């Protein structure tokens, strides 16, 4: 697709029914992001997300997919500490979670880990720019690469990641000019989220694009307003139960005439 100039689509998914929908409309890559932590598990950010949680959700998503490439995100401190731990945890996402590739956040500081995972036969996706696992170090979610020193590091990291053999790189919250420059200089596809229109593909968090979170960064386009839709539906259910408009007999099961007679006979004998 990249060679043909066709843009690549990627979305996050955390469960079986969402995975089935994304597959049915032709999304090419599904990421079980560690954003599962803040998006559906209620954590403040991605930091607390564990390997066990990633495995639980990756397995569920895998059961709903036939066509897309399934990428499992490696959570905070599942790969930074040592090469051995990185390979073991990447392997768990593949062997137990049924992912087909893994994603890691970072550049030069984790090249040894990435190299060993790739050499083990596991496809790796990189992630540069605003890497949310560094939120405390960055001091927030401001875009990255907005000064020369940082832009140079991201650019150089992208080339180093390509050299290790990663198959693609997510670029998050960087100026579009830097997104374009990296996209032109590396041969592997760049997948942007807040990195401008020039990347080879785009990724969003499923719940964000559906308007199912309150999250509203500049780069996000909400394609639906699911919070309102869900609220309206649930409010209507509540009102109809209170007013006794739901359920009606149309929503109820009915006994056959024979069964009714038998039951009445029994009830008469057993008052
Ligand atoms: O965890 C995640 O959802 C991600 C995407 C934003 C790329 O890393």
TrEMBL record:
Residues noted as binding Mg(2+) in the record, renumbered to the chain: 34, 73, 105
Q: Does the keyword rRNA-binding apply?
A: no
| CDD domains found in the cross-reference section | KPHMT-like
InterPro entries on file: Pantoate_hydroxy_MeTrfase, Pyrv/PenolPyrv_kinase-like_dom, Pyrv_kinase-like_dom_sf
Keyword Transmembrane helix attributed: no
Task: State the similarity comment.
Answer: Belongs to the PanB family.
What job does this protein perform? Answer: Catalyzes the reversible reaction in which hydroxymethyl group from 5,10-methylenetetrahydrofolate is transferred onto alpha-ketoisovalerate to form ketopantoate.
User: PANTHER family recorded for this chain?
Assistant: 3-METHYL-2-OXOBUTANOATE HYDROXYMETHYLTRANSFERASE
Please identify the protein, giving its name as recorded: 3-methyl-2-oxobutanoate hydroxymethyltransferase
> What lineage is this protein's organism placed in?
Archaea, Methanobacteriati, Methanobacteriota, candidate division MSBL1
């Amino acid at each position: 697709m990249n060679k043909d100039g066709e843009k690549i689509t990627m979305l996050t998914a955390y469960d079986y029914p969402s995975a089935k929908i994304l597959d049915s409309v032709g999304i090419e890559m599904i990421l079980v992001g560690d954003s599962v932590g803040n998006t559906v598990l209620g954590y403040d950010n991605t930091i607390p997300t564990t390997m066990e949680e990633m495995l639980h959700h990756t397995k569920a998503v895998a059961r709903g997919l036939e066509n897309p490439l399934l990428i499992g995100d490696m959570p905070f401190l599942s790969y930074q500490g040592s090469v051995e731990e990185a390979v073991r945890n990447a392997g768990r996402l593949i062997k137990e979670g049924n992912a087909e590739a893994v994603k890691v956040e970072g550049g030069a500081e984790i090249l040894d880990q990435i190299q060993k995972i790739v050499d083990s036969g596991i496809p790796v996706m990189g992630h540069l720019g605003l890497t949310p696992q560094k939120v405390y170090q960055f001091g927030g979610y401001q875009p990255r690469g907005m000064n020369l020193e940082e832009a140079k590091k991201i650019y150089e990291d992208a080339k180093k990641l390509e050299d290790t053999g990663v198959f693609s790189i997510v670029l998050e919250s960087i100026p579009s000019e830097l997104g374009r420059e990296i996209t032109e200089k590396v041969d592997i596809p760049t997948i942007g989220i807040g990195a401008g229109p020039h990347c080879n593909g785009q990724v969003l968090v499923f719940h964000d694009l559906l308007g199912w979170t309150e999250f509203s960064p500049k780069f996000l386009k909400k394609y639906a307003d699911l919070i309102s839709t869900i609220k309206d539906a649930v409010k209507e259910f509540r009102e109809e139960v209170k007013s006794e408009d739901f359920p009606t007999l149309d929503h109820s099961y009915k006994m056959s005439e024979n069964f009714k007679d038998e039951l009445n006979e029994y009830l008469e004998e057993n008052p």
